[in-house]
TrEMBL record:
This is Uncharacterized protein. The chain crosses the membrane at residues 22-43, 49-71, 92-116, 128-148, 160-181, 193-215. It comes from the Bacteria. Keywords: Membrane, Transmembrane, Transmembrane helix. The keyword Transmembrane applies.
């Protein structure tokens, strides 16, 4: 299936390279993310729900920064530059990528502040709460594992894409908490979830600042020299 997509659209991707496979899987998830964002925005406008509108904006921002990172990865991948020049070009993008990460945190923080101040009336039964919890823990666990493993690929943009997935998984845990608390009929569900979500958003912003200020200057020269003897970029 992946080979058909590559041949059909003449993509400069080699499935033998794990970096390219990760980028392709991320690209294939874009239509689904776009549909989710558009659905939430549409329902928010129809039902005049600030909660759905802000959540829709959040997914739109997350999708935009992921697409921008994928576009930059593609441009660097097809260039004829030397290996180290490609890695340096990817690192240079981390400044903008980190700011995008901060924007994700700010957007989600606004969403959680609205929940904290105005509440949100949505009840989940036991089955729905368990499904949401399973999805949330699965997304976060898979994202963290992918992020840790991507550090050995010497591709800052792939690591950045995995970091975006971690941010998405962290925010999914906020919805998990909300679902579990509503099932237990907690009186302070919106307040508690809103505060927890704002704490998560602060953590995301701090990670974005770390990416912008420190990850950009990580020295990959020695690591790439050791890796190049075994793998090709």
């Amino acid at each position: 299936m992946l080979n058909f997509i590559i041949e059909r659209f003449h993509l400069p991707i080699n499935l033998d390279h794990r970096r390219d496979r990760i980028a392709l899987y991320a690209a294939l998830s874009v239509p689904i993310s776009l549909l989710m964002a558009a659905t939430k925005l549409l329902l928010g406008m129809v039902f005049l729900s600030s909660w759905l509108l802000i959540f829709g904006v959040y997914y739109t921002v997350l999708l935009a920064v992921k697409v921008l990172a994928l576009w930059r990865y593609h441009r660097i991948r097809v260039s004829d530059s030397p290996v180290m020049a490609k890695i340096q070009a990817e690192q240079a993008f981390l400044t903008l990528g980190g700011l995008g990460y901060c924007l994700i945190g700010v957007t989600f923080g606004i969403f959680c502040y609205v929940m904290y101040r105005h509440g949100y009336s949505q009840q989940f039964n036991l089955n729905a709460a368990l499904v949401i919890a399973m999805i949330g823990f699965t997304k976060l666990t898979a994202a963290i594992i992918g992020l840790v493993r991507s550090r050995h690929l010497l591709s800052p943009l792939i690591t950045l894409l995995k970091a975006y997935s971690v941010a998405d998984g962290m925010t999914a845990m906020v919805l998990t908490q909300y679902a579990l608390l509503t099932y237990q009929h907690s009186a302070s569900v919106s307040t508690t979830t809103g505060l927890f979500g704002m704490a998560i958003s602060v953590a995301v912003i701090l990670v974005g600042l770390w990416i912008t200020l420190f990850a950009t200057h990580r020295d990959l020269t020695q690591e790439e020299t050791e890796e190049s003897s075994c793998n090709k970029y």
